[in-house]
Amino acid sequence: LDPREEGIDQPADASSSVSVVSDQVEGVSKYFVQLGVFSDFEKARIYAKKVEKNKFEVVSRELEGASKPRMKILVGPFSDKEGAEQALKRLEARKLTYGDAKIVEFE
């Protein structure tokens, strides 16, 4: 099921453990799996909770400067690209991706 269609009428859990990542992640290259970019923060939170329930560390990143606020949902960080690629394969196997997932790097 598409997370953008799933559980829309459910309120987001305010106690979510999803954290926000800034542009600088401790000054060291970190790899993440980017699962999607959402304009609806409620849907993003619901999706993030679903991924967390599958034992993945989820972080969110608010994008500023766009005409409409958006939120990236990421899994990670991983110290190397191979770790992120393995996580992406596990996410795909559990059907937690929807075609636009990719590996991203923050320095």
Q: How are helices and strands ordered from N to C? A: EEHEEHE
Can you give the helix content as a percent range?
10-25%
Strand order across the largest sheet: 1-3-4-2-5
Mean pLDDT: 79
Count of helical regions: 2
Instruction: Categorize the overall geometry.
Output: globular
Proportion in β-strands: 25-35%
Strand elements, count = 5
Secondary structure layout:
Blueprint: E1 19-20, E2 30-38, H1 41-53, E3 58-63, E4 70-78, H2 81-93, E5 102-106
Parallel strand pairs: 1-3
Antiparallel strand pairs: 2-4, 2-5, 3-4
Question: Explain this structure to me?
Answer:
With 107 residues, the protein is an alpha+beta fold. It is built from two helices and five strands; from the N terminus they run ββαββαβ. It has helices spanning 41-53, 81-93, and strands at residues 19-20, 30-38, 58-63, 70-78, 102-106. A five-stranded mixed β-sheet has the order 1-3-4-2-5. It is globular. The N and C termini lie far apart (33 Å).
Which features would summarize this protein structure in a list?
107 residues, alpha+beta, 5-stranded mixed beta sheet, 5 strands, 2 helices
In brief:
The chain is an alpha+beta fold and 107 residues long.
